[in-house]
């Protein structure tokens, strides 16, 4: 979608319908490039330098870096849990619940980082420190793919909290297992996939985009690949009446490990990207 808005100064805007994720502005004789994702995370050098403003706490390099680190921790614990499930000898001699507790432990950093991301997205338009505006805890910006992505991911992580907690003390019977473990896992995986696609179109400015020489595009694309793997893992984890085969569970856990690896890699790249955020952008 490309449209032109004519006011006192010219603005050319584009994005995947119905969203606007890219603007070319002319302000004071200077051409400025506005990207939705950069705006949300505080990665906008030109605009902040032009307006001489200081970033709020949630758009600083430190905030983005810590958020990425917490995602890395959660992803690493999911990778560890998946490896334990694939190779039981790793946890030989340890309590039976060790693997499932590791998954639950990993779900907590996921939810923590997802909320930090949602808080950041909810306050994306408050881009200057000391403005006196009270930060919003959750916000409501359905016209922003970034906010929608953060909101759906946060809800998805909460579903994984239930999924992993209920698995610690696995209930008897396939119906109960599918109800309290598989169902919230599937809900979380679907929401993760929706969230990842929204983040992908936000940074690609189209519903389908080619690889770009932008770190943000690769972060979103790698994250999307991880969500596809999580979706496969959750689907295969369904417990039928006569039980699930060991081969199917191995394939499920392998996809779970790969998905978590993608999340860890994307989060690590976001930590590298964080150096361009906040007050550093005005330098």
From TrEMBL:
Name this protein carries in UniProt: YrhK domain-containing protein
Keywords: Membrane, Transmembrane, Transmembrane helix
Highest taxon in the source lineage: Bacteria
Transmembrane parts of this sequence: 62-87, 179-203, 215-239, 251-269
């Amino acid at each position: 979608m490309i449209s032109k808005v004519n006011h006192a100064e010219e603005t050319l805007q584009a994005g995947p319908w119905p969203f606007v994720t890219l603007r070319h502005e002319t302000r004071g004789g200077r051409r400025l490039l506005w990207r939705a994702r950069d705006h949300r995370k505080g990665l906008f050098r030109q605009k902040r330098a032009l307006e001489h403003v200081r970033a709020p706490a949630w758009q600083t390099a430190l905030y983005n870096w810590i958020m990425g680190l917490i995602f890395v921790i959660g992803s690493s614990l999911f990778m560890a849990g998946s490896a334990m499930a694939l190779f039981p000898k790793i946890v030989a001699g340890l309590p039976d619940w060790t693997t499932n507790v590791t998954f639950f432990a990993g779900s907590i950093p996921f939810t923590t980082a997802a909320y930090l991301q949602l808080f950041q997205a909810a306050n994306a338009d408050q881009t200057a420190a000391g403005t006196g505006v009270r930060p919003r805890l959750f916000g409501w910006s359905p016209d922003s793919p970034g906010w929608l992505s953060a909101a759906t991911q946060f809800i998805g992580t909460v579903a994984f909290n239930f999924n992993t907690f209920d698995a610690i003390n696995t209930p008897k019977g396939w119906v109960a297992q599918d109800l309290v473990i598989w169902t919230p896992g599937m809900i979380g995986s679907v929401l993760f996939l929706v969230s990842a696609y929204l983040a992908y179109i936000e940074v690609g400015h189209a519903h389908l985009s080619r690889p770009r020489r932008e770190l943000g595009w690769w972060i979103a694309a790698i994250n999307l690949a991880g969500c596809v793997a999580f979706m496969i893992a959750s689907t295969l984890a369904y417990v039928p009446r006569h039980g699930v085969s060991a081969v199917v569970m191995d394939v499920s856990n392998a996809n779970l490990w790969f998905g978590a690896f993608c999340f860890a890699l994307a989060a690590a790249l976001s930590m590298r990207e964080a150096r361009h955020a906040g007050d550093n952008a005005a330098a």
